[in-house]
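Case study B.
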Amino acid sequence: MIEIPTTVIRSIEKHALETFPEECCGFLLGHVGEPRRVMEAREAKNVAKEDRSRRYVVDPLELLHADEEARAKGLELVGIYHSHPNHPAEPSDFDRSRAAGWYSYLILSVRDREPREFTAWRFDDSSGRFHSEEIVGRRNQP
Amino acid sequence: MPSVRILIPTPLRQYAGNRDAVEVNAETVREALAGLVSRYDQLRRHLYAEDGRLRNFVNVYVNEDDIRYLEKDTTSLKAGDIVSIIPSIAGGSFSLMDRLAAKRKDMISPAEIKRYSRHLILPEVGMAGQLKLKQSSALIIGAGGLGVPLAQYLSAAGVGRLGIVDFDVIDETNLQRQVLYGTKDVGRKKSEVAKERIAQINPNVDVQTYETRLTSENALDILKDFDVIVDGTDNFPTRYLVNDASVLLQKPNVYGSIFRFEGQASVFDARKGPCYRCLYAEPPPPGLVPSCAEGGVLGVLPGIIGSIQAIETIKLLLGKGDTLIGRLLVFDALRMKFRELKLRKNPDCPICGANPTIKELIDYEEFCGLRGPAEEVGEEFQLSVDSLKGKIDQGQAVVLLDVREPMEWEIAHLDRAVLMPVAQVPARVNELNTADEIVVYCKTGVRSGRITNFLRDLGFRKVKNLVGGIDEWAEKVEPEMPRY
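Model:
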């Protein structure tokens, strides 16, 4: 289960609309545990060389800096978000080939510039499959 | 041994005693990581695959540099270096179904059904026809005036695989007619830009580019992988090469050509009709038929002829309609008339006739007379633009013979030159005096080179060729002169 404040969801939607029709991506900072708690989102740049409407790649250095920033704030990098323009919010074959069990993967589907379903997933290394993670919204930051 | 810090990414900290950094002593990255996993064994399976190599989504950086661009795991370390382990994050939205459907050539995906709906409701195409297109391939030779509409329409139509052969870069003069390219693309490789534009039009099309000149050495290898060959070239040696290769490989060759306001199109399939050699057994003497650069072309014309080639290609791939096999379509844009000439297979054709003598590819430059020794002008008959300027400034009497076409003369010509277009020289040679010092020039020095040799052979001793032509003169001597 993962807790995400509605303000964070709104900022992810905003980011996705800005990059539409290309996929957006970014980091989720918060605390691990059960449930995972997301405190804030941080935008990342999609550095995929080709086809950014169907692919996203995060620059490892950006990931490193996000990790450092998180640490400085006493938070951890708990997940990655990205958008699927005109496509359901389900992990694809490609997502599966690059996933690791470490992070929560959040996907926002955007259809014709309208944000739609928002889903969360954890990857099981041993089975090679994604399991859906329940999202619980929070009105306020604790 | 230097002491370095290894930064542990969040998800792995639980396997490293909850630490976000670990100090080790190591000379190289490999030693550092080995030190890390020997201390925290649980990290091993997260970092390394079964074959002992780092898992493909584990990046290692030394300070701000990815070790893949240094010496990989033998990268040496110095005291105070920071080694960061960073997971590679990537993904995408190509769902399983879409990906499978797009890659599978035996079905049309729902997204493709929407895209090609205007094809699917045509009785001559339908789902079966669209699938055929998806499963077929076409090679476009030349990404210029003819190649551009071909690239656009064949990719839009959903031909599964396209090849593009072109080694040239986009030049400003191309923009008048090669409408796939824009101002910002000048200087970039045609094959690269064409591939990008095709991906924008239709990402379902596989594009293979060949950035090379087509030669007798590579033609058969390249052509063999495609169902239909489409000739969008601009020179005779390549046309004969493409024809011969297509005949030898038994593939249809969709032909198109343009000149000024006229165009021609046909389909050569030696199994069913004539080939290019049946129509034109011999190439014209070099220099007789100018290129677009020399003769000019109305921009829209290759768009029309190339589109005709595209439609013929699609009909061939679908196996529908009457193609131009055995017919030469001639289009006169000025008079707005289409004519049709019947083409017959030449029974004595050296390559596709009953008793072929050509069984392999030949030297096409030689065939087209472009390798003859007459092409080279001897050193002592060459004159540089600087030398010519020197002579003129010193008041020496020189006859400047301009062998270009009247339209070129109108754009710019040398002061006090005499215009005598190439084709007219043999008839008008009596207007010249063998006693005069004559300097022959054209646009770049090629046509004038031939005329220089021609005049030399007739006994003119004091004739010289202006190296680089009026182009070089404009560049080095008269920069205000308009260039074309």
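Chain B is about 30% helix and 20% strand. The remaining cases will be described in the next quarterly update.
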